[in-house]
Structures are given as C-alpha cells and as structure tokens.
C-alpha cells in the first residue's frame, strides 16, 4: 500500500505528540512511586522497623524450677519430679489420627485426651508440639522410642512437676499446686507473665500458696527468630531464669508422720511446738488426703469423697479450726483473777455441784461437787464452780486481756491457709456483733472456756508454751528461706508475776501427775520427762434443763456430731519446758480419755525423736502401749493411702 | 510503507546490523536483570540455587532470542503480526481445554521442556497486531466507529479469555496496553472518554455480580480487592500479603539493611518473595536509594524506547516500540503499586527481576522486536 509522505509525516508527528504526552504520564507515575517509597521508607521507616522487629523476634519463657521444701532435718517434703509426656507435631505426623490410633496400642490414652489433642492440633500451627499424654511411665516412653518409625511426629519430652514424697502427712501444711485458674489471675494486679504458660502450676493452698512468690522463682527468657508462620528459625539469646527459693520448715517430718498416724481414724488436730524457739515441730490434721492427687488433677469421684466426708479431710484443723477451749481455758481465767488480786493463791471456794446466778443454775461437771476447792485443786480436778466464782469477780475484760497476752484471739503469722483468729469476747464485741449487752452468765461461760470463746489448736499451743516459759514466744513454721534463717520471735517475759505462773504450772503438773488429776492416766514416768497439762471437754450443744432432769447423756449415747470435743494441752519436761502439745479430738468425748493419751504419745515421740522406751509409761499400761506402738509401726510402713483405712479398721 | 520505500533510505544489512543495535537498551536490560539475579541470590539465603542460576540461564536464552529477532527485518515481523495474534488466541483457547491447573487458575500449556503461558505471549502479539492494524489503516479512518470497533474486538477477545482463567493482572495489562496503542495511533479522545465511562460501568457490574451465579471474578479476587481497600481488616488472612510487604519495604529506610541482611523477606514473612514481591526484598535490603535506582533504570529503558520510536518514521515500528515500552511500564507500575499498597494484589511480576520464565522471555522477545525496528529504521544516507 502506498501512502503519501505528507501523511506519514503527519502520522509520525501525531504519534510523537501523543507519545510525549504518554511519556509525561509515565514519568509522573514513576515520580509518584518515588514519593510513596520516600514516604514509607524515610518518613515512616521507624514505625515499620518496629513492626519488623516484632515480626522477627519472639520471646518465650522458660519456666523456672519451683523451690524445694525440706523439713527441719533436710528431709524432702515437696520436690520436683521429672515426668515424661508424649507430644505430637502435626506436620511431621502426616495423618495425626492414624498415628494416634497406632500410639494408643502402645500407651493407654483415654478418648477425651485424644479428642482434646486432635482439636488442639487442628487449631494450632502444624509445627506446634501438642501434648498427647502426660505422666507416662518410663517403660511406655521406651516403647514409643522403639516404635518411632511407625509413629512419625511423636516424641517424648521431659518436664518438671510437683511431687510430695511425704504425701498425706503434709497435705494441710504444704498444701498443693495446681494450674493457674482465671480466678487466680483475677486476684492479681500485675500477673507474672509466667502464669500465662500453659500448664504452669502455682500454689493453691498452704505453704505452697502463701510462699508462692518465694517458691516460684523467675522465668528465663528465650529470644528466638521466627518466620511469618511462627516457626522458630534460630535462637538469638537465652537468659536462664532463677529457680525458686528452697524453704526449710521447722517441722520434723518423722514426728509429723507419727502424729498423722496417731491421729488416724479420728477427726482431730495436734500441734507440737518448741517452747523455746516457737518452732512448730508437728502440725497434724486428721483425716488427711494425698496432695499429689490434686497436682495430677483429682478425679471428681475422689474429690466428692473428700467433700462429703463428715470428718472434713480438706480442713486444716490445727490453724483453721476453732473450738471452745473448755477447761483448757481455765489457766487464763485463774491468771486473770490472780493478777487482779480478786483471789488469793490459797483461798478456797466451796463447790456444791452447782451455783445459782441471777436465778439461773450453773453446773459443775461433777454433780456431787468438789467440796472446798483451792487453785491447785481447781486445775487438778477441773472444778467449774471455782471458775464461775472467780470469773464473776474478775470480769470478762480482764479475762480477755489475759487471753490475748497468752496468744489467744490473735492471728499468728504462719504461712498456712486460713489461719484462724478465734474469738476472745469482750463487752464491746458482744454489743457490736450480737447487739446485746454482756450478762454475768456470759462471763461464767467464758470463765470455763465455753460460750463465745473460740480458739484454734495452734493458739492453745502458743498459750501453753507461754504459760510454761513465761515468755511471749511466737510460733515459727519456716526455719529458713534459701538458707537465710527466719528469726525466732520472742517478745520477752510476759508481764505476769512469777509466783502466779508457778502456781498455775503446779496445778497443771498435778493434773497429770497427782492421784486425782483428770489426766492422771496419761502421766509420763521418769524424773526427766514429767508432763504438765490440762484436759478440756467442750460442749458443742447446750444441755437443757429437761436433759439434766433425766440425767445428762453419756457421750457414747449421742450421735457423733453432738458429742463433746476432747482437748488436752500440755508441756514437758515440767521443770524445764521444751515441748508444748495440743491435741483436739473433734467430738471425741472427754479430754482425759480421748486427747490426753494422744498428747502423751506425741510428747514422748518428740522428746525421744523416735519411739520412746516403754519405761516412760506407767507399768500397768505398757502392754496396751506396746500393742499400739506396734500398730503404728505397721501403719507407718504402709503406703499413705492405706493408713487411714487400717486405723478405721482397728477402731 | 513497503520494502521499496525502506530501500530509498539506508538500512544496514548483514552483520553490520549488530553495530546498529540499540546497545544502551541492551546494557540497561542487562543491568535490570542483574539486579534480579542479585535479589534472587539474596532471597535464597546466599545461594545460586534454586532461583538465581535458573534465572541467569533464562536471561541468556532471552538475550539470544532478542538478538535473533533483532536481526530479522521489521517488515517480516509486521507480516507475521496477524499470524502471531491468531496463534496466541488459539493457545489461549487451548489452555481452557487442556491447560493444567496451577494455583487454582489455568494459565499454561505444558510443552514438556517448558511451560508456555499463552497470556504472556499475547501481551506481545496483541501489541504487534494493533501496530500492524494501524500501519495498514488509512490515517483518516482511524477514528471512524467501525475502524475503532475492530481493534476493540482484537483487544477484548484475548482479554475475555485471560479473565476467564482467571488472571486479572494480565487482563489489565492487555486492555491498558491495547488502549494506549489506540491512543498513540490517534484515535479520537472522545472514544477514550467513552471507554473510561464504560470501564467504570464494568467495575460496577463486576462488584454487582458478587455473590450471584454469574459472578465475574473469583472469590479470592474479590477478597484481594477488599483487603486492598482495608488491609488492616485481616492482617493474618487475606490482607497479610500487603501488610507484610509494606512492613518489609518500610523497614528498609534510606539505605536499607544491607545486602542479604533483610529479615522480613528471608524469614518467610513475605509470600512469593522471589516472584511478585521481590521488590520488597530489594527495598528492604537497599532501602529508598536502591528502589529509586531500579526505578531510574526502568525509566531510562522507557526513555530510550521513546527516543527510538520518535526517530522512527515507520508507523508500525514506532507503534510497536511504544507498545512494548508501555507493556513494560505497566508491568513495573502495577507491580510496584501493588507492593507499596497502592493497588490490589493482582499477580503481575516485576519485569526482568521477578523469578519466572515466561514473563522474561516474552519481554525480551518484545525488546527483540524493538531492536529490530531500531536496526531496520530508514536512515538518511
């Protein structure tokens, strides 16, 4: 085709014109790209750099090893156990369900765990290891290793978990650990990032909970470079954490074991304290439970059994439980009256078995009456009329003040769950709490440790130690933290006249060692280890006039929960006190029969740091004692789970 | 113009043609490709495999093709334009029938030794076809409706087939590239106004089709548009590409983190780091200066093409040169807008830099035609 040169020229000019226009557009577009690049790379560079760092580096926490807990002699009470778990990586497994089916032929895994694991694998990135089975036996781990070719993506890992070698013995002292709950997190203002680690365990009760911050330690960090999908490419840095502090308790694990065994079968509490240092040597609560079950995740069946038991195994009775102290409170009333001068050391008061106050009749436990009673006799035979009289004379305020001086009504600072304050009533307290005025009858009841008065076995032990030494000693449960000794706390001599204290001690000595003492059957033979003490039998119900008319029920005839609490407080040796003991047997009946024998056994066990010789017991009791010693020896050789059953069987 | 007309002036022949090649363009293309090798070496973690070496081989093949094509007289290529277009169209239909399914979209025909992507081929053959059409058409008829309709059909036919694959990026390139050639050929501006208006209409109907049976775009393409409009809405899902790409790019700063020091691209934060998103690696490692340098190289290539086109009095040649240049421009303009978060992720490679055979070969074939036009232009003796 022919075309005129003019046409060609014109068309070329047009192309050039439009081409230049287009070129201009292109260059402006390029300039716009440069502008955008400048904006992103120069003006916003810092912002994007931060985002890039965030993209690149991931911090992960290394959980620290939890602090260990030892007894006063270095026996391990709470430790960490290596446990094996089986983890599975989805992308390596290929078909996780098929691999799991094969795995289940080797290791027992229940359906719920399989479902949970499969679900977790689906939700998370394919390279994240998911725990399939926890706490696997070493044999199973070996089996898995042998079958590795058939189990792609399955590996065994080692982790640490809490173990309580002394199981049931320390359930109420140490408590237990468990996984962090939402409730735990809600209580914390600034939660430790460690708590976010899945399966991280924290103290839930007892020392484990109260000393959580010491025991926990601090997390290490691992800085890893990750790619877009979160896969770890390499470790950039690692900072090891600090393991938790080790704690040494003042408790003697063997004595504790003995106490638990001795209390087995009862609903009871016992506390043994060093009267000089305040060290709590044993703090038993029966029945007990295995804290290891809680660490591993207790079954609802086991949990319901614990919850529904009328003996309340989960309650930490020595510090948490409060009881009317009954006659064990009489030393307080007596000291208050003596110090106030309303009664003289040798003054006698006549006991007719009852006394009439404002036309209301108050009875002595001995219906026939004690006749003329002085201070020593009032303690020895636990006459109630004597205390009704002096309580009226001295008044509740002075009794309360004395009680507080001796450590009652005070929340002792021990790292235990729910340390009870008890109740030492005053007139002001009654007006505020009950909206009623204090009446003389209240003073009478308080004078014999009934009515409003409530005290925990721990408080009674402190009281006993203070009576025995005359020193304002405070209890101590933690001997040292990470090797740093916790100071002994002694506020010095109590502001009580020595002669008055001596008179009380003499009375307490006679309770156990005099012919007519209420705890005469529980005396310790031998000059170097004589025990002094006081029995108590506290009512948990009012005895009505009608009941009295028919004759007071014998405890054995009542249903268990309406029987009296049996109490005993004591110390030994009487002339150089070293150990203070309290035993409370809930609904155990009389203190002299149910509590005092236990207290004597425990006292001797503490003093001899092991089984005492039979010579420490009165000769006529040695046969029974020997058989009981054998029973307990036998029991201590059994696994913890069977001890209480064995005790019940015997009862 | 005919062969005789060319003969009136001086046209080099034989091996002398090599001297008349546009060597600046060859140099610029090699420079851009080298940037590509460097980046592929970097994203592979300092290794020639798996990308850099393969890319170099393909570049060598492409350069060889470019030289061969450059040696063949431009009028031969003009005569081949219709056939080339027809073959491309048939191949596009073929991928519909026998094409293997890759990435959820049918895009290539497996020839055994290489995978042929007809849509890539079409980018060049369409340019050739349109240039030849306007070379043949009487200049006076250019704006007559019938003669405007014909090239529109020529453009829409392959575009429709490509869109069905579905390959949004290539469709945009074909329509825009074709439209620009019509614009250069002198089609009345009123038509463009009308086309833009109907384009708006098309976009509207595409969005209207969403969720109906006759949906014109795949769901993933709709989602890409959604996340383009608001990438932060789904930072780990569909908006992930754009967000990560912007982070990598932005964290480069003035001079970048240094060669092989880019963290984002190397650590797999970037999807398709060696293909469509390779610019982010460059921008992260060499910063603003690196990015601007590459852009400068691209603009220089465009400038040399434009100069060559303006010097050329042959209608087919100048339209072809400008058409190839525009296609090249569209490649990098769309790709860079995409990685900078200015355009949706449509899957257009960075020309001569992104890893990938078809695109590079087709571009070098295109530049072969540019060289042929340059060599065989009529010169004053």
TrEMBL record, chain A:
The chain crosses the membrane at residues 20-39. The keyword Transmembrane helix applies. One of its GO terms (molecular function) is peptidoglycan L,D-transpeptidase activity. The lineage of its organism: Bacteria, Pseudomonadati, Pseudomonadota, Alphaproteobacteria, Rhodobacterales. GO terms for cellular component: plasma membrane. GO terms for biological process: cell wall organization; peptidoglycan biosynthetic process; proteolysis; regulation of cell shape. This is Penicillin-binding protein 2. Pfam families: PBP_dimer, Transpeptidase. Residues 613-651 are annotated as: Disordered.
TrEMBL record, chain B:
One of its GO terms (molecular function) is peptidoglycan glycosyltransferase activity. PROSITE patterns: FTSW_RODA_SPOVE. One of its GO terms (cellular component) is cell division site. It is an enzyme of class 2 (transferase). It comes from the Bacteria. Its main location: membrane. It catalyses: [GlcNAc-(1->4)-Mur2Ac(oyl-L-Ala-gamma-D-Glu-L-Lys-D-Ala-D-Ala)](n)-di-trans,octa-cis-undecaprenyl diphosphate + beta-D-GlcNAc-(1->4)-Mur2Ac(oyl-L-Ala-gamma-D-Glu-L-Lys-D-Ala-D-Ala)-di-trans,octa-cis-undecaprenyl diphosphate = [GlcNAc-(1->4)-Mur2Ac(oyl-L-Ala-gamma-D-Glu-L-Lys-D-Ala-D-Ala)](n+1)-di-trans,octa-cis-undecaprenyl diphosphate + di-trans,octa-cis-undecaprenyl diphosphate + H(+). One of its GO terms (biological process) is cell wall organization. Pathway: Cell wall biogenesis; peptidoglycan biosynthesis. It is found in: Cell inner membrane; Membrane. Its EC number is 2.4.99.28. It is a multi-pass membrane protein. The chain crosses the membrane at residues 20-46, 58-77, 83-104, 146-163, 172-193, 286-307, 319-346, 352-370. Keywords: Cell inner membrane, Cell membrane, Cell shape, Cell wall biogenesis/degradation, Glycosyltransferase, Membrane, Peptidoglycan synthesis, Transferase, Transmembrane, Transmembrane helix. Peptidoglycan polymerase that is essential for cell wall elongation. Belongs to the SEDS family. MrdB/RodA subfamily. PANTHER family: CELL CYCLE PROTEIN, PEPTIDOGLYCAN GLYCOSYLTRANSFERASE MRDB. This is Peptidoglycan glycosyltransferase MrdB. The gene is rodA.
């Amino acid at each position: 085709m022919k075309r005129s040169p003019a046409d060609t020229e014109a068309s070329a000019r047009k192309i050039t014109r439009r081409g230049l226009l287009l070129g201009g557009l292109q260059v402006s577009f390029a300039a716009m790209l440069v502008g955008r690049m400048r904006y992103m790379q120069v003006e916003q560079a810092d912002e994007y750099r931060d985002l890039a760092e965030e993209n690149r580096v991931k911090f992960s926490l290394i959980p620290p090893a939890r602090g260990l807990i030892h007894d006063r002699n270095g026996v391990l009470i709470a430790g960490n156990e290596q446990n094996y778990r089986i983890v599975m990586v989805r992308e390596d497994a290929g078909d996780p369900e098929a691999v799991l089916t094969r795995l289940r032929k080797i290791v027992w895994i229940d359906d719920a765990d399989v479902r949970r694991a499969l679900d977790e694998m689906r939700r998370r990135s394919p390279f994240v290891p998911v725990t399939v089975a926890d706490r696997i036996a070493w044999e199973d781990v070996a089996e898995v290793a042998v079958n590795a070719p058939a189990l792609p993506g399955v590996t065994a890992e080692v982790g640490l978990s809490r173990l309580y070698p002394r199981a049931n013995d320390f359930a109420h002292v140490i408590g237990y650990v468990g996984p962090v709950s939402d409730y735990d997190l809600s209580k914390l203002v600034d939660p430790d990032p460690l708590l976010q680690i899945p399966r991280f365990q924290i103290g839930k009760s007892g020392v484990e909970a109260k000393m959580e911050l010491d025991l926990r330690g601090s997390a290490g960090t691992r800085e890893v470079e990750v790619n877009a999908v979160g896969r770890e490419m390499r470790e950039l840095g690692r900072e090891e954490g600090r393991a938790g502090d080790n704690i040494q308790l003042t408790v003697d694990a063997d004595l504790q074991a003995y106490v638990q065994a001795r209390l087995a079968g009862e609903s009871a509490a016992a506390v043994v304290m060093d009267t000089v240092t305040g060290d709590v040597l044993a703090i038993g609560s029966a029945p007990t439970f295995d804290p290891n079950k809680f660490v591993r995740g207790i079954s609802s069946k086991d949990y319901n059994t614990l919850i529904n038991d009328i003996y309340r195994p989960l309650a930490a009775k020595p510090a948490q439980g409060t009881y009317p102290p009954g006659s064990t409170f009489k030393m307080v009333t007596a000291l208050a009256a003596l110090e106030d001068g309303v009664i003289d050391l040798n003054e006698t008061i006549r006991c007719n078995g009852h006394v009439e106050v404002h036309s209301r009749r108050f009875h002595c436990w001995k219906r026939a009456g004690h006749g003329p009673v002085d201070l020593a006799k009032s303690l020895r035979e636990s006459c109630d009329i004597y205390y009704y009289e002096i309580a009226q004379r001295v008044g509740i305020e002075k009794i309360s003040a004395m009680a507080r001086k001796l450590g009652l009504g005070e929340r002792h600072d021990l790292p235990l769950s729910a340390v009870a304050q008890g109740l030492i009533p005053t007139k002001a307290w009654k007006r505020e709490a009950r909206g009623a005025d204090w009446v003389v009858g209240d003073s009478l009841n308080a004078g014999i440790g009934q009515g409003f008065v409530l005290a925990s076995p721990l408080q009674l032990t402190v009281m006993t130690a203070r009576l025995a030494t005359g020193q304002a000693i405070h209890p101590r449960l933690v001997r040292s933290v990470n090797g740093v000794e916790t100071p002994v706390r002694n506020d010095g001599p109590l502001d009580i006249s020595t002669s008055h204290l001596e008179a009380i001690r003499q009375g307490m000595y006679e309770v156990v060692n005099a012919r007519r003492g209420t705890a005469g059957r529980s005396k310790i033979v031998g000059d170097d280890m004589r025990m002094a003490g006081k029995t108590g039998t506290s009512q948990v119900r009012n005895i009505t006039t009608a009941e009295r008319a028919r004759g007071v029920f014998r405890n054995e005839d009542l249903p268990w929960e309406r029987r009296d609490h049996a109490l005993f407080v004591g110390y030994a040796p009487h002339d150089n006190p070293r150990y203070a003991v309290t035993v409370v047997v809930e609904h155990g009946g009389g203190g002299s029969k149910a509590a005092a024998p236990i207290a004597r056994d425990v006292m001797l066990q503490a003093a001899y740091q092991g089984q005492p010789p039979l010579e420490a017991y009165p000769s006529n009791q040695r046969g029974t004692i020997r058989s009981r010693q054998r029973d307990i020896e036998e029991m201590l050789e059994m696994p913890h789970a069977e001890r209480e059953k064995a005790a019940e069987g015997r009862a | 113009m005919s062969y005789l007309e060319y003969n009136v002036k001086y046209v080099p022949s034989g091996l002398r043609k090599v001297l008349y090649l546009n060597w600046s363009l060859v140099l610029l293309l090699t420079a851009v490709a080298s940037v590509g090798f460097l980046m592929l070496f970097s994203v592979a973690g300092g290794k020639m495999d798996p990308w850099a070496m393969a890319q170099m081989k393909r570049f060598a093949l492409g350069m060889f093709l470019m030289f061969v094509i450059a040696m063949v007289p431009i009028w031969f290529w003009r005569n081949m334009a219709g056939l080339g277009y027809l073959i491309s169209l048939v191949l596009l239909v073929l991928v519909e029938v026998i094409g293997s399914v890759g990435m959820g979209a049918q895009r290539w025909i497996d020839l055994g030794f290489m995978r042929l992507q007809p849509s890539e081929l079409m980018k060049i053959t369409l340019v050739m076809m349109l240039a030849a059409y306007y070379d043949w058409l009487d200049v006076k008829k250019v704006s007559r409706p019938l003669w405007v309709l014909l090239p529109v059909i020529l453009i829409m036919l392959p575009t429709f087939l490509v869109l069905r694959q579905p390959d949004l990026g290539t469709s945009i390139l074909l329509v825009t590239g074709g439209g620009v050639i019509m614009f250069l050929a002198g089609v009345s501006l009123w038509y463009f106004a009308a086309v833009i208006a109907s384009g708006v209409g098309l976009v509207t109907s595409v969005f209207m089709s969403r969720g109906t049976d006759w949906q014109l775009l795949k769901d993933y393409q709709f989602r890409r548009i959604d996340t383009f409009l608001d990438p932060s809405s789904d930072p780990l899902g569909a908006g992930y590409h754009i967000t990560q790409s912007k982070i990598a790019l932005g964290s480069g700063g003035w001079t970048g983190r240094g060669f092989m020091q880019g963290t984002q691209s190397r650590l797999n934060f970037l999807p398709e780091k060696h293909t469509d998103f390779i610019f982010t690696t460059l921008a992260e490692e060499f910063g603003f200066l690196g990015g601007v340098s590459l852009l400068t190289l691209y603009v220089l290539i465009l400038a040399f093409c434009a100069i060559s086109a303006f010097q050329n009095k042959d209608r087919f040649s100048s339209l072809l040169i400008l058409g190839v240049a525009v296609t090249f421009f569209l490649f990098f303009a769309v790709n860079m807008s995409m990685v900078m978060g200015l355009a949706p992720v449509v899957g257009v490679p960075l020309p001569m830099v992104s890893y990938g055979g078809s695109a590079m070969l087709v571009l070098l074939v295109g530049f072969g035609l540019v060289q042929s036009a340059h060599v065989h232009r009529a010169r004053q003796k």
